[in-house]
């Protein structure tokens, strides 16, 4: 059985290491049912609205199984919510979901319908948070990226109310074969796979723009990208 172990929310906190001077990555578990709106879970507030939040990043999920993997790698316990996820799941490989998969979360008549549309890209705030939490932050972004266990962002297609322990069911898979893990690799470590993303119906605009730009550059219709300083 697949289910939600923990639902976590966060509020902006001032942190010297955060790029904006504040961050909401410190998510803490809620004990009872919560409402889910188009922009996310009630009580959760985004700090960096340029890179996080919005309709295409309304809810972030991470699997307990992947947290267990990192526990072994880091040699320390990792609590649910530590990676900034709203939903800590169990019994489902969220990174193997096809982009566009739809998940029914919660009890019939009151739960929500979520659609996997994007992936988490690690940043220096994540590194700073891990360091503050007592983990080894050295090369954290590089290590996290290399394992390709990013966790998906979801759109909220149907609002409702969910609670810890609620079931999670995949009710639709689009069939194109491009997974959460595939999208992450294309956006982070192997740009040659960006064109693979163009088969996805409803691909988020900023990802489609990156994929289309790559296709145009490789076709020679655009000048080479400026080198990264």
Q: Major sheet: size, sense and barrel closure?
A: 8 strands, mixed
User: How many domains, as an integer?
Assistant: 1
The span between the termini is 48 Å
- What structural class is derived from the secondary structure elements? alpha+beta
Specify Rg, calculated over alpha carbons. 18 Å
Question: Could you give the count of β-strands?
Answer: 13
Q: Provide the β-strand percentage band.
A: 15-25%
- The CATH topology name reads M1 Pyruvate Kinase, Domain 3
Instruction: Determine the mean pLDDT.
Output: 94
- The order of strands across the largest sheet is 4-1-8-7-11-10-9-13
How many DSSP helices? Answer: 5
Just name the CATH architecture: Beta Barrel
Order of helices and strands: EEEEEEEHEEEHHEEEHH
Q: Which class in CATH terms?
A: Mainly Beta
Give the proportion of residues in helices: 10-25%
Low-confidence stretches: none
Structural account:
It is a single chain. The protein is α+β, with helices and mostly antiparallel strands. It has a single domain, classed as M1 Pyruvate Kinase, Domain 3. 22% of the residues lie in helices and 24% in strands. The protein contains five helices and 13 strands. An eight-stranded mixed sheet has the order 4-1-8-7-11-10-9-13. Strands 6-5-12 form a three-stranded antiparallel sheet, with no helix packed on it. Strands 2-3 form a two-stranded antiparallel ribbon. The longest helix is centred in the C-terminal third of the chain and has 14 residues. The termini are far apart. The mean pLDDT is 94. InterPro entries: Benzoxazolinone_Detox_Enz, MoCF_Sase_C, Pyrv_Knase-like_insert_dom_sf. This is MOSC domain-containing protein. It holds the Pfam family MOSC.
């Amino acid at each position: 059985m697949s289910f939600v172990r923990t639902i976590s929310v966060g509020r902006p906190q001032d942190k010297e290491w955060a790029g904006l001077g504040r961050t909401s990555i410190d998510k803490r578990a809620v004990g009872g049912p919560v409402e889910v709106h188009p922009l996310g879970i009630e009580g959760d507030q985004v700090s960096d609205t340029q890179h996080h939040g919005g309709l295409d990043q309304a809810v972030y999920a991470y699997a307990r199984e992947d947290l267990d993997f990192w526990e072994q790698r880091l040699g320390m316990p990792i609590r649910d919510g530590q990676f900034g996820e709203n939903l800590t799941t169990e019994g489902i490989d969220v990174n193997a979901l096809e982009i566009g998969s739809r998940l029914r979360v919660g009890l019939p008549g009151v739960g929500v319908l979520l659609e996997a549309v994007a992936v988490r890209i690690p940043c220096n705030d994540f590194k700073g948070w891990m360091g503050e939490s007592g983990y080894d932050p050295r090369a954290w972004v590089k290590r996290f990226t290399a394992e390709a266990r990013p966790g998906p962002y979801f759109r909220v297609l149907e609002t409702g109310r969910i609670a810890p322990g609620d079931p999670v069911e995949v009710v639709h898979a689009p069939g194109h074969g491009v997974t959460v893990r595939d999208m992450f690799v294309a956006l982070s470590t192997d740009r040659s796979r960006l064109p693979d993303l163009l088969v996805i119906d409803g691909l988020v605009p900023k990802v489609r723009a990156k994929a289309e730009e790559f296709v145009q550059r490789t076709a020679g219709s655009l000048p080479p990208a400026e080198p990264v300083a």
